[in-house]
Write a structure and sequence with these properties.
Elements (H helix, E strand, L loop, with lengths): L1 E3 L4 E4 L2 E4 L2 E5 L16 E3 L2 H8 L2 E7 L4 H9 L6 E6 L8 H16 L3 E5 L3 H9 L16 H14 L4 E4 L7 H17 L5 E6 L5 E2 L3 E2 L5 H18 L14 E4 H6 L2 E2 L4 H13 L8 H6 L1 E7 L10 H17 L6 H13 L14 E2 L7 H8 L12
Parallel strand pairs: 3-15, 4-15, 6-7, 6-9, 7-8, 10-15
Antiparallel strand pairs: 1-4, 1-5, 2-3, 9-13, 10-13, 11-12, 14-16
Helix pairs in contact: 1-6, 2-3, 4-13, 7-11, 9-11, 11-12
Bound molecules: guanosine-5'-diphosphate-alpha-D-mannose.
The site of guanosine-5'-diphosphate-alpha-D-mannose has 26 residues, from strand 6, strand 7, helix 5 and helix 11.
Length: about 400
């Protein structure tokens, strides 16, 4: 793969926020011994470097009642050496969709000779393991794991950790283009190959997010992302005194982290998870509030933002869904200790304008799940040891 070299980095305390890098070439050819002429402007990441990182990476796929054909396409796009971890919150009563997902995954793994894990979010053993570890934030009143994509992601991180993976990445299950899924993983590996810190994150920016209305239109920015980017940048600009547009991936559902970073971040429930990751990094390592983790601060946190070649085509869920999404997303910025009263006011006005908040309505405060580092992972690991094989789709 060839991607643009890093041209510009903004620093916020011990956080290095790298400006957007574009993918130039999906396949950069054989390794060559002769010096490359484009070396200053372009990174060539060799196939074996990418493959090596893929072998250490788990890809977490959250799924809730998606079309099986889409799920099948997504798993077919995940490079062979990555461990697939599917976390499902699909219905089991009227129709056992989880069973169908499991069968689809098992058939895929049988024919491709690879291993994968699949777990249902409401699995009682998991809930018991989490309770044992003191991870009450993950559980609801009934004692099972709460609903939400972010809760699914945290389960995925835990399973990746149990499988001793160094990197954990996320890919939504409603993607229409398997080739795009493949590219996301290559991008994650390319980003990590450039990282100098063991605390790194790679966030994907889609080249286009097409809309069909009535013809295909290659829209660049998602409606929610545009707004979220603006307010996160406003927050950074206010603190540094220099206006910035550095953040272009505030809502990146497709993103990846080194396990070291994944362990120390808190996670916001539901769809606020991606902007909250950035907010938590800025709060914990921006040098304004107390430092969240000394070791990470010493190494620095590195954020890569890389733009795909493939467009992103996924299930369109309409205006209501967007309104439901934007409220928790902006509330994590609003409630950040870094947010000043002027930005808070602008956020409230934007939410009212978007009809996501009533004029007199109260901004809901985000529900935060504590970092994995703060719970008894050892307790979870020993409890889960005997149950773990039941999540593998192929018998060992
Ligand atoms: N395990 C699990 N549990 N998965 C879930 C749940 C849940 O409760 N709810 C949704 N999912 C899965 C969906 O099946 C899908 O694969 C993925 O999570 C994203 O959910 P969508 O409902 O499709 O979200 P979206 O497409 O509107 O938004 C996505 O893109 C945004 C950026 O534009 C999400 O990834 C957002 O988090 C992201 O900000």
């Amino acid at each position: 793969m060839r991607i643009e070299s890093l041209r510009y980095t903004e620093r916020f305390g011990s956080v290095r926020i790298n400006d957007l890098q574009k993918v130039l070439e999906l396949d950069s050819g054989r390794k060559s011994e002769t010096p490359r002429k484009e070396e200053i402007a372009v990174h060539k990441i060799e196939d074996e470097v990418i493959k090596d990182i893929e072998g250490k990476m788990a890809i977490v796929i959250p799924i809730k009642d998606e079309k099986l054909k889409l799920f099948e396409g997504v798993i077919s796009g995940i490079p062979h050496d990555c461990l697939i971890i599917v976390v499902s919150n699909s219905q089991r009563k009227r129709m056992d969709r989880f069973r169908m997902e499991r069968d689809t995954l098992a058939q895929f793994c049988r024919f491709t000779q690879r291993q994968a894990l699949i777990v249902h979010q409401k699995d009682p053993q998991l809930a018991q393991g989490l309770a044992q570890a003191g991870y009450a934030d993950m559980l609801d009143k009934k004692g099972v794991v709460r609903n939400g994509k972010s809760e699914g992601m945290v389960l995925g991180i835990l399973l990746a950790m149990l499988n001793k993976k160094e990197y954990v990445a996320f890919i939504d299950s409603d993607n229409y283009i398997p080739g795009a899924v493949w590219e996301y993983v290559k991008i994650y590996a390319a980003g990590f190959s450039l990282a100098q810190s063991p605390y790194a994150m790679v966030r994907v920016l889609w080249h286009y997010k097409p809309k069909i209305s009535p013809e295909m239109y290659f829209r660049k920015w998602g409606r929610v992302s545009e707004i979220t980017n603006r307010y996160i940048n406003a927050l950074l600009s206010d603190k540094t005194g220099f206006e910035t547009e550095i953040i272009k991936t505030a809502n990146a559902g497709e993103h990846a982290m080194t396990m070291k970073l994944a362990e120390i971040l808190p996670y916001a429930s539901g769809f606020a998870v991606e902007p909250q990751e950035l907010i938590s990094i800025f709060e914990g390592f921006g040098g304004i509030l107390p430092t969240a983790n000394q070791a990470a601060a010493k190494h620095g946190i590195e954020i890569f933002q890389i733009e795909t070649r493939n467009p992103h085509l996924h299930e369109e869920r309409g205006g209501m869904h967007l309104r439901r999404m934007i409220l928790p997303v902006l509330s994590v910025i609003h409630y950040s200790a870094l947010c000043n009263s002027e930005i808070k006011q602008q956020i409230s006005e934007k939410l009212i304008e978007q009809r996501a908040l009533q004029p007199e309505g109260e901004m809901p405060s985000p529900y935060l799940i504590s970092p994995l580092k703060t719970v008894d992972i050892q307790g979870f690991t020993s409890f889960m040891k005997e149950h773990l094989p039941t999540y593998s789709v192929l018998e060992e």
